[in-house]
Amino acid sequence: MSLQTATSIDDLRLMAKRRVPRAFFEYCDRGSYAEETLEANRADLKALKLRQRVMVDVSNRSTATTIIGQPAALPLVLAPTGLTGMQYADGEILAARAAEKAGVPFCLSTMSICSIEDVAAGTSKPFWFQLYVMKDRGFAQSLVERAIAAKCSALVLTVDLQVQGQRHRDIKNGMTVPPRITLANLVDIATKPDWALRVLRGKRKTFGNLDGFVKGMTGVKSLGQWISGQFDTTLNWNDVAWIRSLWPGKLIIKGVLDVGDAKAAAATGADAIVVSNHGGRQLDGAPSSISALPRIVDAVGGETEILFDGGIRSGQDVLRALALGARACMVGRAFLYGLGAGGEAGVAKTIDIIAKELSVSMALTGRRTIAEIDETVIDRG
Ligand code: FNR
User: Fold this and answer.
1) Atom number of ligand 1 nearest to Cα 331
2) Domain extents for the chain?
3) How far apart are alpha carbons 32 and 331 in whole angstroms?
4) Of 33, 193, 227, 367, which cross-links 372 as Cys (Cβ 3.0–4.6 Å)?
């Protein structure tokens, strides 16, 4: 299979699986503990049936919209994902470029391989920056200042990972901070020489935003241990005011699944919240994101924009989430599979597949514009 013959996100996943070393592929692909929430994200989306409508003039269709007031060609955002530069060398820059060309926002993670400055230098339009708050508040503040200097167009505060949900595969694969090539992984990497050559030639081999911060660590730790040591578990709603005082631009709170939390998030005056369970990577046993979406839209949809993520693998899935009240969807794995499959062209392919699926599915449900997508798109039988 090649990028030309790939027709679905599943195809890109298979290509990525062949090209990316197992430790990094599984870091992307898998979830926490028994992966019940990871599975529920997909299963509950699939269970929502779309209502076929016919004999509507759908000759003029548009997927254009705005997200937090910013124009977008599609109701889609590339989600913040850690270690993206390990799926493909310079992955963050390449994904940001693909997003820029397609007219959708790209969100850079705190835990990225390429730094804020690397991505700013490699792109020409503003991108979003995602913040994890560390115990060292001065360091968190410096990240926000760097995002301001890089002219980032939104700050995404992730609130669902002050401790890490254990991902069994990462432990078995020896994922460490900074990423380390173990003997066990060497054989696997030897079968993926293209990946290895690109990473060796790439800009970075370790977390670009955390230079100095990571160097201060004693010895190599598992990702989970490192996070427990560094991330600030005292983080609470009062801290949003502190972040607001540092960041003058658009603020998005990511990782809300509960109505009470959604109300608290909206009360901070955030421009949007992301209904998310971190792609089934944190609290295993939590409900699927899509099952939580309607009640959160009911509770705070009038006050703040509601973004959604968790399990989106197609344009049909985007349509489902929009029907239940999401303004736009973030995709994590869907774009990472494209990246692993073929770098910038692979991410462009991900966006193109989802865009075409969305446009066709809008036509087949009788909708011409994003504004025409509402609850009646879902077939309740
Ligand atoms: C993530 N996610 C994430 N979120 C975040 O706020 N900061 C981060 O650094 C990361 N890192 C990360 C790495 C990888 C490999 C994945 C798959 C996900 C969560 C991400 O932003 C998003 O919430 C989920 O990926 C959405 O689910 P899907 O689209 O992957 O099913």
Assistant:
1) 29
2) 9-49+72-358
3) 18
4) 367
Mean pLDDT per 10-residue section of the chain, whose length is 381 residues: 97 98 95 98 98 98 98 98 95 98 98 96 98 94 98 98 91 75 83 89 78 63 79 95 97 98 98 98 98 98 98 99 98 98 98 98 98 98 91
- CA 86 to ligand 1 center in whole angstroms: 14
Q: Is the peptide bond before 178 cis (omega within 30 degrees of 0)?
A: yes
- State whether the Cα torsion 5-7-13-16 is positive or negative: positive
Our CA dihedral for 245, 247, 250, 253, rounded to 10 degrees, sits at: -80
DSSP 202-245: SS-SS-GGGTTTTTTSSS-EEHHHHHHHHB-TT--TTHHHHHHH
pLDDT of residue 225: 80
Class of domain 9-49+72-358: alpha beta
Q: In the numeric block, which tokens belong to residue 59?
A: 């000759």
* ipTM score of complex: 1.00
* CA neighbours closer than 13 Å in the CB half-sphere of residue 191: 10
Cα 166 to ligand 1 centre (Å): 14
